[in-house]
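Anyone have tokens for Peptidase M28? Sequence:
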Amino acid sequence: MIKYSLFLLFTPVVLFSQANSEHHEIKKYISEVSSDSLKSYIHQLVSFNTRHTLSSIDDSGKGIGAARNWVLKKFGEYAKNSQGRMEVYLQQQDIQPDGKRVDQVTNLGNSIAYLKGTDPNDKRIFLISGHLDSRVTDVMDRKSFAPGANDDGSGVSAVIEAARILSKSKFPASIVFVAFSGEEQSLLGSKLLAEKAKKENMQIEAVLNNDMIGNAKAGETNEVNDHTLRVFSEGLPFADLDKKASGIRNLGLENDSESRQLARYIKEIAEKYVKDLDVKLIYRNDRFLRGGDHSSFVNLGFPSVRLTEYYENYDHQHQDVRTENKKQYGDLPEFIDYHYLKKNVAANIAVLASLASAASKPERVEIEVKELTNSTTLHWEKPKSGNPIGYYVLVRETDSPVWQKKIFTKELSAKIPLSKDNYIFAVQTVNQTGDLSVPVIPVIAK
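Reply: yep, here.
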């Protein structure tokens, strides 16, 4: 446990308490999340019979084409609230058979709404996603009834509800809302967007991928957990790991990738604003034998996490809809816990609003190591965008999963009476309304 007196050379400020207070606009946003709206979205998605990526794109009432057009229509309705700042479009590409999970030329389409930030100099983008496509047991079966209520109607409902509520906002940074296609056919839609983002040097600073966030009951035991949301994050960064591995090992930062910093941020903000919600950090990129759309972004170096329910029920996941021995199988809407789903959606909205409201991260965060001392000196530069009232220096013991102490300063440097050998440090910005940037781990000062 961290124990020390603050004999630091900081100027105490009244704004310290204000920076810790809740942002009332964010509280307003999450109060608008509606279980009825979420239920209506999911039932509409189920009504398309199947949303398999290889299903019809021309049928007006059934298949993936009808589903993606409906999502675009909903985005278009909400764009009217944005004073012209929300652009709605279908990112599409014809993909060829791959001999694996695509056996015909297929028009792949991602339904996207791009809410532009109000600051033209702020290039940050925060992305929320779910996958639109659904499947039954046979991953190539494009005709059978594949309701996909939870996998991933729940994630898509979060994206649509976030677009509805946040379309009225005025954040300096931008938010992208996307319903991917092709997830079940090997993450095709997310790869398409991630590759475009990489090619165009888009400044995507966080991807919140929601995949199955509406089921509260375990399949084997029937145990219910309607208060825990798992967040999966990679530890060692997949992108350019060979170049980074030595430095990570030398500094003991195996638990401090950008995606893991994002996961810790989600836990802090979601638990602050959403009642009766416990965010469980899972120190893995994803579950065994499964994958998610966040991995397409992780693999290209974008901070990305997967948000998912605490329990998975495999009777209602990737199953043909049927009744056997009086047991109902299939991903049907009656197995969604809408109260639980509402909390998980509220968590997403609180995090997105906090990220997009905050000043950008501090620049050139460095730690001094040129002298043998039992104190630690950090320094940094102002963020590229936004007007912070100050900065938090974050501290945790090396074996702690979360930050244990925050120290406020208005300065661009700090001397902490703790040994750099025993603790992990980071710095984040804080603005007038208490919104925080994602923490930045320092590099060695040259």
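The chain has two domains: 24-357, 363-444.
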